[in-house]
Amino acid sequence: MAGQSSIVPGTLEMLVLKTLSLAPMHGWGIGERIQQLSQGVFAVNQGTLYPALERLQRDGLISAEWRVTENNRRARYYRITRSGLRRLETEREEWERSVRAVDLIMRTT
Question: Where are the beta strands (DSSP E) in 2-95?
């Protein structure tokens, strides 16, 4: 799709945490929500998403449980933990600091 970009390396986990801070959801839904929230700029590859979900769960930043989807299929639903919310805030602050620094450099004439 024209206009799509790769997610900046190292930011997928932050975007997953942000997405899960809005509502618990299954993996496919997380990818769809990131694409929706980015207005189609980011398309999340499922082969990249699921290892990220495993890392976040291993680190205690998200939890998972099996539930039935709206289509009556079993799926793992992920939820952000308190540790995940704290990490999200830290990541957001670092992201904003980095964006400001890049913007300063790019505006230099």
Answer: 25-26, 62-68, 74-80
Q: Which residue has the tokens 């289509």?
A: 71
Measured distance CA(106)–CA(67) in Å, rounded: 47
**Residues 35-76: tens digit of each pLDDT:** 999 999 999 999 999 999 999 999 999 999 999 988 899 999
Do residues 67 and 53 make contact, with C-beta atoms less than 8 angstroms apart?
Answer: no
pTM for this one?
0.90
State residue 24 phi and psi, 5-degree precision: -65, 145
3-state secondary structure of 4: coil
CATH topology of domain 12-107: Arc Repressor Mutant, subunit A (1.10.10)
Q: Which pair of structure tokens corresponds to residue 14?
A: 């932050």
